[in-house]
């Protein structure tokens, strides 16, 4: 059995604990230590980057063929196909690849990255099928809300059926897009709904998706999507909150430009407090995902606040020197904590 480094570290600690507490004999402990292998991280890294490259190239090819060349429309008009016919065709293509992906996952359950490559075609085929179905049924008249809502349901269903992390993320992206378009419609073509502008509305949506990861974890068929839901919701929540700290609850660019940024200090302070609390909790609970994402936004927050309040008032060299020293100190402390944990 092959384990990655984190899994191997957990197994080693468990075996050591059992051996020290005399729950297992030294001979059995040694046998357990020899019963697994540590998977090469370099191979995993290469496979992961290859998968990202495949996704990127697939999206670029789709964009070049469908958006730039419009080959689907050219073929449809040349052969006088109806929009419903194109929708049926791409639905069948998606169905065939769903079948192939399902069969491959059952046959090679551990080849996650290779299996996910099939879902690129599924995601793109479903997108084209939904676009033509909604147009043929008169559901799309410059209104993207209904197609995006349908895409959310379809991606979620297929993602849970396979299961596929990529399609689950596509479902979350479609849900976010639907919420943004729906707010625009509910506001009557404006950018404020229920007293909230876009950043505030997206902050609440991100918080809702982030919180739903705990519910996803409790549902056995969806438990594999807990990490993707958690990460997506957290990133959306912090990104929207970061935008909220810049624009406040203003929905008009002209009005926002006319005020001093200092009048929105409470949004900045609130975002900073939330980041500090989440970062402290991440270090205390040893939540690597929460820690890393919070630190990225903490850096973005520092730079944002500097450009807002101190760009014209302080010497740039002195500011960045202080910033460099502070990050060096944080890195040094983090290294000391890590060494202490290893010693313990």
TrEMBL record:
Bilayer-crossing residues are 46-67, 79-101, 113-132, 144-162, 196-216, 228-244, 264-283, 313-330
Q: Which UniProt keywords apply?
A: Membrane, Transmembrane, Transmembrane helix
The superkingdom of the source organism is Bacteria
Look up keyword Iron and say if it applies. no
Question: What name goes with this protein?
Answer: DUF2157 domain-containing protein
Q: Which organism is it from?
A: Runella rosea
Lineage of the source organism? Bacteria, Pseudomonadati, Bacteroidota, Cytophagia, Cytophagales
């Amino acid at each position: 059995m092959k384990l990655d480094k984190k899994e191997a570290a957990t197994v080693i600690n468990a075996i050591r604990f059992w051996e020290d507490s005399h729950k297992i004999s030294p001979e059995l402990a040694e046998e357990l230590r020899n019963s697994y292998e540590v998977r090469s991280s370099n191979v995993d890294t290469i496979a992961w980057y290859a998968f990202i490259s495949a996704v990127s190239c697939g999206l670029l090819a789709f964009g070049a063929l469908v958006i730039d060349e419009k080959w689907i429309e050219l073929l449809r008009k040349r052969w006088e196909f109806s929009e419903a016919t194109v929708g049926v065709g791409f639905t069948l293509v998606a169905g065939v690849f769903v079948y192939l992906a399902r069969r491959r996952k059952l046959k090679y359950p551990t080849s996650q990255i290779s299996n996910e490559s099939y879902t690129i075609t599924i995601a793109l085929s479903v997108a084209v099928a939904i676009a033509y179905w909604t147009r043929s049924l008169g559901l799309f008249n410059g209104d993207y809300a209904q197609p995006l809502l349908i895409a959310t349901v379809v991606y979620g269903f297929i993602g849970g059926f396979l299961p596929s992390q990529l399609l689950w993320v596509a479902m979350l992206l479609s849900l976010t897009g639907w919420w943004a378009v729906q707010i625009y419609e509910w506001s009557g073509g404006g950018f404020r709904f229920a007293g909230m502008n876009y950043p505030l509305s997206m902050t609440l949506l991100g918080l809702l998706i982030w919180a739903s990861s705990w519910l996803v974890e409790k549902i056995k068929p969806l438990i594999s999507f807990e990490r993707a839901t958690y990460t997506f919701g957290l990133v959306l929540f912090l990104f929207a909150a970061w935008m909220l700290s810049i624009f406040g609850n203003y929905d008009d660019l002209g009005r926002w430009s006319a005020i001093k940024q200092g009048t929105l200090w409470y949004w900045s302070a609130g975002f900073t407090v939330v980041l500090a609390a989440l970062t402290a909790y991440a270090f205390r609970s040893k939540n690597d995902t929460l820690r890393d994402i919070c630190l990225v936004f903490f850096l973005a927050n520092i730079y944002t606040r500097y450009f807002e309040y101190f760009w014209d008032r302080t010497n740039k060299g002195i500011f960045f020197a202080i910033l460099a020293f502070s990050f060096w100190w944080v890195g040094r402390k983090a290294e000391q904590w890590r060494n202490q944990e290893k010693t313990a």
